[in-house]
Amino acid sequence: MNDRHPTPPTSERRLFTRVSSWPEARFLGAVLRTETVGGGLLLLGAVLALIWANSPWADSYATLGGWVPWPGGKALHLDLDLATWAADGLLAVFFFVVGLELKREFVAGELRDPRRAALPVVAAMCGMLMPALFYIGIMLVSGTDGLRGWAIPVATDIAFALAVLAVIGSHLPQGLRAFLLTLAVVDDLLAIVVIAIFYTADFSFLPLLAALLPIGAFALLVQRRKTWWWALLPLAVTTWTLVHASGVHATIAGVLLGFTVPVLGGGAGPGLAEHLEHRWRPVSAGVAVPVFAFFAAGVSLRGTDLGGLLTDPVVLGIAVGLVFGKAVGVFGSTWLMARFTRAELDRELSWSDLFGVACLAGIGFTVSLLIGELAFGAGTAAEDKVKTGVLTGSLVAATVASILLVRRNAVYRRIDEQDRRDDNQDGVPDVYQQRPAAPN
């Protein structure tokens, strides 16, 4: 470590401190690069759905989503159409990867230290509470019967948010990216809890109890580092089937299975969680989430009063919750913590950086659309309103955040260009050896 720039003592509590080591920064960078590709594919699936749903062949899009490939599976609750398979089946892979990420964060990541975890946890909680309050307020003022959708704007889409940050924030401080990733992971965990508690219908206890058997067998194998696909896959499918039959949303099965995987390796190498995440992330980012987006984002605007649709209370509640609720919740809670506790913003960051990321957290897509389906039902009159609200709010949030962060990225780019003029013999960027004050 450069003696001219000593690291602050561990007793000094600062918010958003830089990622602690170069290997951890490389790991985070690899995750962000993957999410960039996944976010692009997610956007592609949504754009294709919008084009097809508003084309002369819109009926074929609806027919494809409503096709039931296995009509004889009613006894096992498997007589599902393609759109439902995408939401209940493929998204289970996405939530399995989320479960692995959550486990890693709690065991070996930012959330393992309660003091470091306090900020993103509080920011995530307030970043979910405020959008819900904005939505509920608009429903009450308008007198619209749409309160069941209060949770639609509470979720941040990891793939979209990290993809936007990776594209526009090539020179932003790594600690800011780590904060967004941790906040999004906590956000996903809380969204999972919301789905399990508030959007579970026709609950049946026995199938859920029976699901503990394949989960236990899966846990036993992974704890012993046995990665036999011919054993783990049938156990995972059995778990999914039983959880689905219980009435709990089937994606919860993916989270439960992800939690069973050990994070720490027996030796110096990475743990099994990182290995499985490396294997399944391409399936999640490249197949599961884009296919879900394709079936979920196809809102038809043909013959629609666009002005009336955009001013509908449900659409407004979702969009305002994502754009304003997220920014107020994340930024406001962080400012209050810095104001009324001894914690301080790290010298390498400014409040402008934080506000840009708070706006970026308003990008809601995957989980928001899923909650919308659970709240109002697929094929209902409110479905297009939910999709319009989510797409509009996410687009506005992404645009505002991009404008703010592009400006900040230009400032940090000039600093990095100056750093690259210095000799760097050890292969570790100078930015990880010193802690310059944040530019205004």
TrEMBL record:
Function according to Swiss-Prot or TrEMBL: Na(+)/H(+) antiporter that extrudes sodium in exchange for external protons.
Region called Disordered, residue ranges: 418-440
GO cellular component: plasma membrane
Chain's gene name: nhaA
Segments crossing the lipid bilayer: 36-53, 82-100, 121-141, 147-168, 180-199, 205-222, 229-246, 252-273, 285-302, 314-338, 350-376, 388-406
One record GO biological process: regulation of pH
Gene3D superfamilies according to UniProt: Na+/H+ antiporter like domain
A Pfam family per the record: Na_H_antiport_1
Name of the protein: Na(+)/H(+) antiporter NhaA
Main subcellular location of this protein, as a coarse class: membrane
Coiled-coil regions, chain positions: none
Superkingdom as given in the UniProt entry: Bacteria
Catalysed reactions listed for this entry: Na(+)(in) + 2 H(+)(out) = Na(+)(out) + 2 H(+)(in)
